[in-house]
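Notes continue from the previous slide.

Worked example: a multi-chain complex. Inputs as given:
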Amino acid sequence: MLETPHATPSAPELDCFALAKQLSGLHFIGGRYVPALSGKNFAVVNPATGAEVAQAAEGDAADVDAAVRDAARAQKEWAKVPARKRGALVHQCAAVIREHQEELARLIALETGKALRTESRVEAGTVADILEFFGGLGSELKGESVPFAPNVLSVTVREPLGVVGAIIPWNVPMLLMTLKVAPALVAGNSVVVKSAEEAPLAVLRICELMNRVLPAGVFNMVSGMGPECGAPLVEHPLVRKVTFTGSVETGKIVAKAASQKLIPVTLELGGKSPMIVFQDCDFAKTVSGALTSMRFTRQGQSCTAASRIYVERPIFQQFVDEMKKAVDAMVMGDPLDEKTDIGTIISEGQFEKVQGFIDEGKKTAGATAHECSAMPKDSALKKGLFIRPVIFTGLDGNSRLVREEIFGPVTVIQPFDDAEKVLAEANDSEYGLAASLWTNNLKVGLDLAHRLEAGLVQINQNLVVQANLSYGGVKSSGLGKEASLEAMLEHFTHKKTIMVNMA
Ligand code: NAI
Ligand code: MG
């Protein structure tokens, strides 16, 4: 257990500051670390202090081309490896990740500001879990026999698509990347990942660790800016599939570019997830469930964050009071300190955006901003991008805070009187990613679950994405599913029909 912030642990690889420096200025292409062809780098900043911790390679179309060409060469051989063997190798990667779990957790905490104990360690563990899950699915890449005619053997086989381009965001980069890379690889594709500019280090380290097991070239990574490095990846003629997680705005740009090549895209975009609390809920469990649902330990930077909470009127005030008390008890501080529950916002840009929503809420007539928890006192953190969690009351469905994705530690609680009306309000959104219902009346719960417009509805819990559960939104929240067997089959293979006339 660390007593002082930023104390250097004994094992050298657990010194995330040193590791960040070592990973500076590098892509991972064709089985090795390489610098950007242009020689350009950009700064990676620790959002808890504002200090630069590393430089990342600033990739452009030339780096992307090198990575995609290597990936295309490697894919031809990789596709010949029996599916089950490919799975076994991906499974083996999980063991390597587990050995390095603490190192990855520290690295991601350093570059994203996500607290080590509550978030970063959990994320690193989930990476291994996802690799193990998909690693076991090689044998499921099977086809069908089709009853066409007595003397004609007609079968389908699952074939890989080729090179997959994966573009990832900064909020849970290791997990979201693995949801793409693991199924793509098991299905026989090769992958080029474009990391998020705010968080390129931990994913780069994962890429190198997995390359200790995988053949060179099947898993590559480039870092750089969206338009200069992400766009050329989508547009590259050898990229046959794009999978993207990020904002709706960028998702549309990616989908438009992919449509010009007529290649399939999977999009996991934002959300404005409702949490509906009935008075017959298990009260204490629901209050603590609201903290989890809002992803406060991730500073609310989650596409499934319960950023609009509807509470049945008789328990509304008590719910607000208890939730405020519970959030007050959470400790904001140095992400690397074991005592910290809540870390920082990722970047100055996001900080301004979130702060803008809070200021707007505060200015709205009739609204109350319940600011919770306390700012950290440590002077080393005075430039840190900390925002106190805010619970708003007195706002309604006309507010931008209830309609738009804030991606920060801000939630709006509104009272409701009628199940049908609250369902209509919940569905009155551009988004449809996730929703949760809290009630002991499962008849009502199941009925509403069927009628909520969302890809994932949970009753009396609100977990983050899990391996083996189909995950993905409707409406502006995205296209396609991730995390499940069906996601691997539908999004990373195509079905070929083969017919043999034996007459
Ligand atoms: P973004 O969607 O712009 O970035 C996501 C990824 O797309 C990054 O790797 C970025 O470099 C890349 N990208 C940007 N422009 C591109 C282009 N023209 N072509 C190809 N790739 C491109 O998201 P950003 O700017 O980081 O965050 C903005 C908002 O998006 C957040 O406030 C939040 O509301 C939402 N968001 C949603 C996420 C989710 O999990 N669904 C994750 C991150 C952000
Ligand atoms: Mg952007």
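Summary box: Confidence is low (pLDDT under 50) at residues 1-9. The chain has 16 helices and 22 strands.
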